[in-house]
Amino acid sequence: MIIRKVELRNFGIYGGEFSFDLTPVSSNGYNRPIVLFNGKNGAGKTTLIEAIRLCLHGPLALGNRVGQAEYEDHLAKYIHIPPDSSTRPTSARIRIFLEYVSQGRKQVYRIERSWKLVQGKVKLELDIWQDDHRLTDFDTIQQKESLLRELVPPRVADLFFFDGEKLQLLAQDDTSSSRLADTVHTLLGLHLVEQLQKDLDVYLARQATQHEVATLRTQLEELVHQASDMERRRLVLLNERQENRQALGNKQRTIAEQERRISSEGNWFAERLNDLRSARQRLETEIEIQRRQVQELGNGLMPFAIAPQMCKLVAERLDLEARYEQGVASQQVLREQLALFSTEVTSPEFWTDVEAEIGEPDRQRIVGKLEDVLKQTIRAPSIDPREVILMVSDQDRQTLLNWIDHSLTDVPLQFCRAIRRLDLLETQLDQVTQDLQLVPADETLKPLVETLQDYNQELVELQKTDRDLAELLDRLEYDLEQTRYQLRRTREQIAQQEHHHQRVQLASKAQLALEEYASELNRSKIALLEERLTVRFNDLCRKQDLADEITIDPRTFRITLHRQQLPFSQAQLSAGERQLLAVAIMWALREVSRVPMPVIIDTPLGRLDSEHRLSMVRRYFPQASHQVILLVTDTEVDEQTLSILDPAISHMYHLEYDAVQGRTVVYHDDTACVSVLEEVPV
Asked: How far, in Å, CA of 249 to CA of 265, rounded?
């Protein structure tokens, strides 16, 4: 897909008519994918991105939980407001031209979203053209919105339209895991597999015919509904946690700025404050890592360790059932062999071969005696079948026994050590926090430090909210996994009851095939993603081979880096390296997914040092996609950076805000030369 052109009319600070040609062009056989927008903050860069997202996704551009009234209010605020309010326009429009290839055929879509104020209310219009033909088969705006979601899925667009703030979130360990999981899930089409499984569940429930499966059918329907409800709650919690972590990051930056102000006001206090701040940052990082270790232990076998007697009883029960199953299997083999033996020995040919003349009654007595002897060699199990309640496979039995052994020996010791270490770190952090609260008596510093204390208290509350949301997510993930397991068991039970029903059998086999397909696809793609992520991260870092290998847990999607065969987490990277890892994740995901989308990047270099900036400019921007729309501030891209990017730039726009006219003024340079600029006519 290529965004050919974007046209704006009276949208935000773009007062009047604007047209941006975004189609990349080649020069002398060299691919030039970058369309560069530069300008100071407030010149209209982010507004342009918001216009593209709003045109493509409508209310979804504001979030999943935005109501119609809030959406209309948002649109009304985006109608341009000139300095002279008497000439304020009452309508706005966004128009986008997309070049889209489907089944080998190139199509051009023109999407036009407009709105106007009529007696204080917003009237919306959405029109779509395909190859200059207006699509008239849609009766409502909702149907047109569905078509746009198919052309450019919002969750996929999140991977290709991102800014420095999103990179900051992705650079955080916990956030990157959840976002990576959702993105991989969408890009690989696993959500479609889940939907098909749900459809098959409904089919199985409706096809059940026997009276005995009525309860199973009801149970299946309840489990499907329960799983869907859990998935919806999981998405809500993920969104809440992302918003909270964004607020947490903003608060941390506010605290850092306040601490800088305090340092500049009092040099004598600055040195002590810097030491305490470094100690607090180190302790907070170590505490977070230690908490994750405790949480991982608690989510593993630790619950078994607190019930040792129950574990021993379960182990005894497993051993009892193993002996019972061995006895039952032996009896089954014995019966089959006795049947073969009886058939062979009672046949006339057998006695002819042994050349013995024995009458029929004697033959029967001999056969009976031999059968009694054989039965004595393998006795039936002495265990009452009613005592067999677990009924697990040999592999699952051995796994459970290993878990029980581990939970009774190693796990309690590991957990106690982790808790003691966490208590020690939290005690040290409390002491550092108390030292930070010892403010000087200087009246100049006192209000600044009081404000800093308020910020720190707000930060503590945000951190608590983050931990609470993480715990809720963990519990919900566990409950969802248990529900999915019950779903699988119920499907199998229905299939067993309906063994005579061919369609039910086929549907059940399809369920198993879908699970195996999703699991194998997930494993293979993650393996490929690990490989590409390792390559791209090392490409971006100035340190060669910073990570020998990067692995991704296929269940939690937690990223672990390895150097010299030793693992280390994202927390051990510098802030700039974490940003580069986030970029490498986006880069690797695009390569693995092979989704031909343009990449739109808004102010990505603000939090990087000069060396990391040059790495992004040299290695990532020219290769990120077949079309890269790059929006930067004048401080992010200087003359040296621009000279490096120049061979890959197809178009360049310079944005300036004219305070007198109250709107953005755009300058365009088709040849990407800084010295030749022409104002775009309005």
From this structure: 25
Round to whole Å and give the CA distance between 358 and 297.
73
Torsion, Cα of 582, 588, 590, 591 (10° steps): 160
- Pair (374, 453) in one structural domain: no
Check whether residue 329 and residue 378 sit in a common domain: yes
Mean pLDDT across the chain, nearest whole number? Answer: 78
Q: Which of 530, 480, 456, 517 is nearest to 259 (CA)?
A: 456
Q: How far is residue 175 CA from its own chain's centroid?
A: 8
Helix (H) or strand (E) holding 370: helix 360-377
The b/e string for 184-196 (b: 16+ C-beta within 10 A; e otherwise) is bbbbbebeebbee
State the CATH number of the domain containing residue 145: 3.40.50.300
Contact, 255 vs 456, CB < 8 A?
A: yes
Does 467 lie in the same domain as 417? yes
Task: Decide: 560 and 569 in contact? Cβ < 8 Å.
Answer: yes
Give CA angle at 30 (29, 33), nearest 5°.
130
Looking at 12-16, 131-135, 416-420, 557-561, which range is the least confident one? 557-561
Residue ending a domain, choose from 497, 526, 555: 526
Helix (H) or strand (E) holding 601: strand 599-602
d(CA 197, CA 151): 24
> In terms of Cα–Cα distance, which of 147, 174, 96 is closest to 467?
174
Pairing assessment for the beta strands 34-39 and 133-134 based on DSSP bridges: unpaired
DSSP string, 487-508: HHHHHHHHHHHTTT-HHHHHHH
Distance, CA of 20 to CA of 655 (rounded, Å): 12
Rounded-to-integer distance, Cα 4 and Cα 22, Å: 5
pLDDT band at 553 (very low <50, low <70, confident <90, very high): confident
Report the 10 Å Cβ neighbour count for 532.
18
Burial 493-531 (b: 16+ CB within 10 A, else e): bbbebbeebeebeebbeebeebeeebeeebeebbeebbe
| C-alpha 59, offset from chain centre | 22
Domain that holds residue 204: 194-301+409-526
Q: How confident is the model at residue 96 (pLDDT cuts 50, 70, 90)?
A: very high
618 burial (CB, 10 Å; 0-12 / 13-18 / 19+) is: middle
* Domain count along the chain: 3
Radius of gyration over alpha carbons of the chain, in Å?
34
Last residue in a domain, options 110, 142, 161: 161
Instruction: Indicate whether 102 belongs to any domain.
Output: yes
Return the H-helix or E-strand segment holding 286: helix 267-299
Residue by residue, DSSP assigns 150-216 as HHS-HHHHHHHEEEHHHHHHHTSHHHHHHHHHHHHHHHTTHHHHHHHHHHHHHHHHHH--SGGGHHH
Task: Report how far residue 301's alpha carbon sits from residue 318's, in angstroms, rounded to the nearest whole number.
Answer: 18
